[in-house]
Amino acid sequence: HPFSITSAPGDDYLNIHIRTLGDWTGQLKSVFAEVCQPQSANQSGLLRSDPSSSRPRMPKLLLDGPYGAPAQDYKNYDVLLLIGLGIGATPLISIVKDVLNNIKQGKEIEEGGAMENSGHKRNQPFATQKAYFYWVTREQGSFEWFRGVMNEVADHDHDKVIELHNYCTSVYEEGDARSALITMLQSIQHAKSGVDVVSETRVKTHFARPDWRKVFKRVAMNHPDQRVGVFYCGAPGLTGELRKWAREFSRKTSTKFDFHKENF
After folding, report:
1. Cα separation values, 108 from 78, 101, 156, 238, Å
2. Buried-most residue among 6, 66, 83, 254 (CB within 10 A)?
3. What's the sign of the alpha-carbon dihedral 65, 70, 76, 79?
4. Computed over its alpha carbons, how large is the radius of gyration of the chain?
5. In the chain, how long is the greatest CA-to-CA distance?
6. Which residues are in the FAD-binding domain (predicted)?
């Protein structure tokens, strides 16, 4: 699991996020550290390459795969509920990017058939009409991993097809007196510049953990008589609760939730 493709089918590059989790990936990070820029204090271990630097050349890699994963069925659903816990957000970011690329592609077609010049055509119609993405992480610096994607969604998703919800669990709950100052500064900064002080993106960060019952209830109310693909990637501890709410709201409402999970 530490290796996750985070680029989308429409991208002209392959993007992979790798978590340092053991001796082998630790050594891999050391090799890349020799040719990458040193990480800053708020980057949460993220390394970036600089092709113009005088450092040694990037290592050569051999790729094996691809292999199937539960999240690959997302194109079958009109509505997506994507839930990532910590590093589990990585495969879901690929889905968000694919939905975003489809939005861009649709705009290009509307603006005069730029599709003909893009060189990229889909093999089948894109079903997804709405996507909810919930990312829950303890480390504030983790939001830097996908800052570009989040800002890109804010720039291009004018019809609000994609909803991004960031939750930082290392901060006290919203409404707690100890987090009041952070919340006040966050609101002032977001109103002034449109940038969140916690994630440094345009997506406002919530504190503590989501109320998953309210999340499922809101999706069910927004999409009656529709089938929702729920995709969870993260530690096993949350799997049971999410599956329970998916089953309960499928039984009590006209919305049907299909639950898929990938644990690590």
Report:
1. 21, 10, 11, 40
2. 83
3. negative
4. 19
5. 62
6. 1-71
By DSSP bridging, strand 79-85 and strand 227-234 are parallel
Q: Distance (Å, rounded) from C-alpha 147 to C-alpha 206?
A: 16
Tokens of 160: 């609000």
Amino acid at 231: F
Distance of alpha carbon 184 from alpha carbon 155, whole angstroms: 25
Least confident span in 5-14, 21-30, 190-199: 190-199
Q: What is the 3-state secondary structure (H, E, C) of the chain?
A: CCEEECCCCCCCCCCEEECCCCHHHHHHHHHHHCCEECCCCCCCCCCEECCCCCCCCCCCCCCCCCCCCHHHHHHHCCEEEEEEEHHHHHHHHHHHHHHHHHHHHHHHHHCCCCHHHHCCCCCCCCCCCEEEEEEEECCHHHHHHHHHHHHHHHHHCCCCCEEEEEEECCCCCCCCHHHHHHHHHHHHHHHHHCCCCCCCCCCCEEECCCCHHHHHHHHHHHCCCCEEEEEEEECHHHHHHHHHHHHHHHHHCCCEEEEEEEEC
Query: What token pair was written down for 136?
Result: 């829950």
Write out the two tokens for 77. Answer: 């659903």
Question: Residue 5: what pLDDT?
Answer: 83
- The answer, yes or no, to whether residue 21 has pLDDT greater than 80, is yes
